[in-house]
């Protein structure tokens, strides 16, 4: 199948599914392709996730930098059940992200299923595609469960 047609289909899916992130990302890639700037694809593929995570982390840290989070609020995190659960959630998430990265290193074609699953999650379940590594981590967990149940 012609890559341009696939990208246009993703733009249409993004528009129909009211997902500006998918539509914009696919449009960006189509522009690179149509302007013969495909030579940047490997860099975008290699560094795009890091850059996206950088901006996501910056957005999350803005309240610290702006002073909207006080020392009292930080102390509360360590002394309240929701705060402690948030810490545990952060630990589990980063652990799962590491397992996802391991899975993608061992089985790079797994990204195809993750991308399709992410598109389905965005379009039909109003999900937000912020965690390809988390998606891979969950996939690694599901594979472990599948192998455990299947053996």
From TrEMBL:
Example GO CC term: the record gives: plasma membrane
UniProt keywords (A-Z) are: Cell membrane, Membrane, Transmembrane, Transmembrane helix
User: Which compartments does it reside in?
Assistant: Cell membrane
Query: Matching InterPro entries, A to Z?
Result: UPF0756_TM
Which Pfam families has this protein been placed in?
DUF441 (PF04284)
Superkingdom field: Bacteria
The transmembrane segments are 6-32, 53-71, 77-98, 110-127
The entry sums up its family as follows: Belongs to the UPF0756 family.
Protein name, entry field: UPF0756 membrane protein SAMN06264849_101415
UniProt source species: Melghirimyces algeriensis
